Amino acid sequence: MNTRLTSLPVASRRTLLQTLAGGSVLLGGGLLWQRLALSAEEAVRIPAPALDLPAGGQAPQRAIFAGGCFWGVQGVYQHVKGVLRAVSGYSGGAATTASYEQVSRGNTGHAESVEVTFDPAQVSYGALLQIFFSVVHDPTQLNRQGPDTGTQYRSAIFATSPAQLKMAQAYVAQLDAAHVYPKPIVTRLEDRAGFYPAETYHQDFMTENPGNPYIAFNDLPKVENLRRLFPDRYRREPVLVKQSHS
């Protein structure tokens, strides 16, 4: 049984039930519970990177982000224009331990991650970073996000090129210098990490399970924050992993 289905604290579940009583509205292909933002973590308005990687006239590129449970990270990036594919998986450890059962123990070195394949002519790496630090998660929480704790839920960027690593380092320094958060950024910047796709039942989990309490409370508000803070980058219909295989 997936532990996330019953992982909400009692107080959180109570708040969720009060929120759900307010009704529901449609968002994309799923159900967004009305007034859910009242109990969700607030997104942070942050400046765009001062420097960005070149855009246009390039082949699709890859970026790997870890920001807590991969259901929400994947769900957000699936709604970003220019993202061609977003796959939940594991990064930071060995191929032999890249399974949900093993990673959940917290001792494999892996983080739940999402590999984002994107068209740099439509969305830049810098824009993906801005969404990561603003909407996807709280980069000041060490080894936890929401109800999930452990190094497998750490905030991390797995650079796929020296240019990505350099840019991520510069952006973290920029945000820290601007004091946009009340606490320091703890995001780990890692490179040379492999990426191993997660099990099929984890893919497109947000879209397929909008009524799941964990999704409704922790993740659907992130998609709404994306729409609200980045309207020019938001797309209503998500790009799904399973559709790309059909």
TrEMBL record:
<protein>
    <recommendedName>
        <fullName>Peptide methionine sulfoxide reductase MsrA</fullName>
        <ecNumber>1.8.4.11</ecNumber>
    </recommendedName>
</protein>
<dbReference type="Pfam" id="PF01625">
    <property type="entry name" value="PMSR"/>
</dbReference>
<feature type="active site">
    <location>
        <position position="69"/>
    </location>
</feature>
<dbReference type="InterPro" id="IPR006311">
    <property type="entry name" value="TAT_signal"/>
</dbReference>
<dbReference type="GO" id="GO:0008113">
    <property type="term" value="F:peptide-methionine (S)-S-oxide reductase activity"/>
</dbReference>
<comment type="similarity">
    <text>Belongs to the MsrA Met sulfoxide reductase family.</text>
</comment>
<keyword id="KW-0560">Oxidoreductase</keyword>
<feature type="domain" description="Peptide methionine sulphoxide reductase MsrA">
    <location>
        <begin position="63"/>
        <end position="214"/>
    </location>
</feature>
<comment type="function">
    <text>Has an important function as a repair enzyme for proteins that have been inactivated by oxidation. Catalyzes the reversible oxidation-reduction of methionine sulfoxide in proteins to methionine.</text>
</comment>
<dbReference type="InterPro" id="IPR036509">
    <property type="entry name" value="Met_Sox_Rdtase_MsrA_sf"/>
</dbReference>
<dbReference type="InterPro" id="IPR002569">
    <property type="entry name" value="Met_Sox_Rdtase_MsrA_dom"/>
</dbReference>
